[in-house]
Amino acid sequence: MASQSPCAEPPVLQYRPSRWEWEWRGHHAFEVEHDDSRNWTRGCSLMLNKTAEIDAWLAFARLRRPTFPQREPPAPSAKARDALSFLAKLDGCTGQTLALMPLEPLVGFLRHPQAHCHQFPSATPWVRNIQRKDYLLPAWRSEVLHRGKTSALFFDLGASLYAKGNGGASMSWFVDEYEARGIRFDRIFAWEATKHADATIYEAMPTRIVDRIAYYNVPVDPTVGAKHNPWRTLRAVATPHDFVVVKLDIDNSRIEEALVEQLLEDRSLAKLVDELYFEHHVLHTPMWRGGWRATTVTNHTLVDSYRTFVRLRELGIRAHSWV
């Protein structure tokens, strides 16, 4: 009797949202979908009911910040496991869980969990909280290696300058945060519509970044296949063996939503992206009152934003809500 050949199915990525996220996706997001009141009363009340979960999430995020010579990310506590969502890597043959990568739960209006709601005892002034990034959970090198990645690429859509930006420097933040976790970007591709002199672009940029960057001082073009559609460049330079991080924040909802939809509709394209940081401008949130109203042209609401991030995560992309 011939022996059966061993199973050769590739690993499968499975999104596992927390119960807390299910509550927001199924109920609370609809409750606050059209609330752009100054105090966001109902939303803040719902968040204040989860202070234990928020504290566990933020404590775990602090632990995941590298403290040398730490080489492995810490495991979440039981409280953090209850609060967080995860992207699981499963054995394609047995379904056994091989690795778990933590993700921020999709709750609130998808910013820092203490943002805007002044009732939190530890909350700083709301504008500062809105821009805080310490709730984010970037990947570590060991987690990337679990997925068989070799080279690392960063696509910065809405790059501003290396050490400057409307919401604070983003390019330097990504470079520093990932290098601290053992991931050095081999190539960086950046698009910025605001015109800058070459000397200004490279003034604050470290030499090691100058040697690795392609900086396109032109607007992103959402037309499929266009010269400056970043997905065209991504297809040209990346393989599934690369670890690809994308930041999408160009403050033009029409272009951003078109690019995200292209990613969602094309599974072969989605397989090239490992982590996506996206600031989704939507109607009727504290951000709408706090600044988006003047610049945002969209029909999307917070409910649509939840659906978008869930779809991205279900495709195996660690999608983070950016600031």
Q: Helical content, roughly?
A: 25-40%
Shape estimate: globular
Structural class: alpha/beta
Terminus-to-terminus distance: 61 Å
Helix segment tally: 14
Q: What do the pLDDT scores average to? A: 91
Characterize the structure shown.
The radius of gyration is 20 Å and the shape is globular. The chain has helices at 19-31, 41-48, 51-63, 78-83, 126-131, 141-146, 171-180, 198-203, 207-210, 230-237, 253-265, 267-270, 286-290, 302-314; strands at 12-16, 85-90, 97-103, 152-157, 187-191, 213-216, 243-248, 275-278, 318-321. Helix content is 36%, strand content 15%. Helix 7 links the parallel strand 4 (152-157) and strand 5 (187-191). 39% of the residues are buried. It has a domain at 1-138. It has a six-stranded parallel beta sheet, covered by helices on one side. Strands 1-2-3 form a three-stranded antiparallel beta sheet. It has 14 helices and nine strands. It is an alpha/beta fold. The model has no long low-confidence stretch (mean pLDDT 91).
